[in-house]
Inverse folding.
């Protein structure tokens, strides 16, 4: 991405100022080159035949003068690739036309072509380089040749110097501005790549964290099932050989499942910590008991809120509907959504009060965190990308809210894992709302 973006910018500005070095690249004539070429060629033809006449100040030999104008226009087609060479060729063209047609007429097409090529030469190389010094020498030679086309007074000499100087100076200014723009474009492309890489790593880390937690939940439940099957097998009396074999098969399958889970997912424990929710004690976050403890669910929300209150936030819990048992993975994800939302309120919202609502519907579970904070001054783009704690939707974040934080990525991942969805955004009158919906189809039977 970085290379493509930088190349595109270079092509745009290269078409304006020409190639960066004499003889390098295979850049074809641009539309601007063609426009200059046509302008000089057509204007030269009009000048040569339109001012034809024997009197002083008229063109006495229009054919060589017109041929010189066409040649000058052709040279402008290659100004971007060979600016210094084209300027020297223009001087040679002027010398040839002067030798054939005499010095009685000052061709305007030669002056205009010189200004275009002087501007291109100045923009092709830094003045302090050898190519830049060579270009400056050619510019001085071109200006000196202009003074030989007719007898000029002091005013005419100074006017020519002013125009040539402006053409040369504008080329230098354009080159410096273009170089600065290219540097900024490359830096922007580099920062964009780094931002995307950080976002990608955040998603991977959040998925790894979810996988670790699911590993704990599934392993625990399968182990319990295996133990129950073993206990039931031991309680069977004589004459139940078939039932014993079936239960023994359940035990074997359970043990194999736990072993496979440990092989596939247990290795994730060895790579990184248990998330970026870290509290002051270094555990997984508000309400966690560390890697070795049981995974939390909505039954432990009061413990979570108690710790948040100790941090200075007035938070209140309200339960709507009839609470009922939830699948461990879904309860854990809902708990984590509330946990991360409260962490964002503490970090960013400057809120006086926060309401946590847990709603048990017939077919869905809704957890909602609403604060009344005004937010704080958003961090810089780099800080927001690196911080990972903003947790607010970039499309809906209001003034004072950090945008696109990794916390929001994690909450969306957790909701999507159970077929749910998450919404986040400012509320009318001030404050911020985070709401996650989890479908509960079939939980009454499986819970």
């Amino acid at each position: 991405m970085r290379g493509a973006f930088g190349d595109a910018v270079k092509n745009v500005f290269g078409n304006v100022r020409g190639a960066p070095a004499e003889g390098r690249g295979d850049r074809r004539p641009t539309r601007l080159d063609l426009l200059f070429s046509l302008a000089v060629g057509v204007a030269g033809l009009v000048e040569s035949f339109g001012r034809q006449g024997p009197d002083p100040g008229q063109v006495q030999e229009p054919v060589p003068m017109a041929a010189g104008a066409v040649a000058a226009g052709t040279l402008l087609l290659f100004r971007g690739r060979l600016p210094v060479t084209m300027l020297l060729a223009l001087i040679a063209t002027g010398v040839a036309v002067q030798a054939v047609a005499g010095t009685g007429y000052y061709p305007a097409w030669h002056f205009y072509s010189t200004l275009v090529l002087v501007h291109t030469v100045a923009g092709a190389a830094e003045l302090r380089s050898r190519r830049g010094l060579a270009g400056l020498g050619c510019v001085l030679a071109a200006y000196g040749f202009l003074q030989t086309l007719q007898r000029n007074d002091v005013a005419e000499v100074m006017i020519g110097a002013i125009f040539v100087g402006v053409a040369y100076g504008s080329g230098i200014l354009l080159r410096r501005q273009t170089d600065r723009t290219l540097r900024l474009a490359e830096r922007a492309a580099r920062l964009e790549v780094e931002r995307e890489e950080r976002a990608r790593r955040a998603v991977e880390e959040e998925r790894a964290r979810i996988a670790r937690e699911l590993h704990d939940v599934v392993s625990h439940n399968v182990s319990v099932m295996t133990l129950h099957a073993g206990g039931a097998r031991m309680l069977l009396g004589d004459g139940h050989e078939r039932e014993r074999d079936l239960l023994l098969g359940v035990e074997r399958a359970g043990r194999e499942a736990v072993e496979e889970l440990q092989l596939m997912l247990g290795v994730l424990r060895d790579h990184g910590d248990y998330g970026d929710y870290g509290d002051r004690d270094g555990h997984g976050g508000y309400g966690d008991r560390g890697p070795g403890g049981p995974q939390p669910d909505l039954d432990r929300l009061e413990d979570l809120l108690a710790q948040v209150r100790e941090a200075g936030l007035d938070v209140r819990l309200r339960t709507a509907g009839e609470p009922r048992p939830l699948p461990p993975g879904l309860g854990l994800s809902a708990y984590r959504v509330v946990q991360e939302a409260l962490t964002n309120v503490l970090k960013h919202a400057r809120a006086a009060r926060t309401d946590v609502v847990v709603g048990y519907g017939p077919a869905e579970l809704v957890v909602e965190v609403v604060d009344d904070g005004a937010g704080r001054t958003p961090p810089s783009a780099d800080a927001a990308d690196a911080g990972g704690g903003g947790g607010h939707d970039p499309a809906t974040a209001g003034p004072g809210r950090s945008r696109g934080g990794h916390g929001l990525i994690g909450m969306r991942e957790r909701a999507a894992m159970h077929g749910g969805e998450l919404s986040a955004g400012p509320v009318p009158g001030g404050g911020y709302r985070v709401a996650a919906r989890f479908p509960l189809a079939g939980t009454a039977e499986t819970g």
The longest strand covers residues 353-360. The radius of gyration is 39 Å. Residues 279-447 form a domain with the Heat Shock Protein 90 fold (CATH 3.30.565.10).
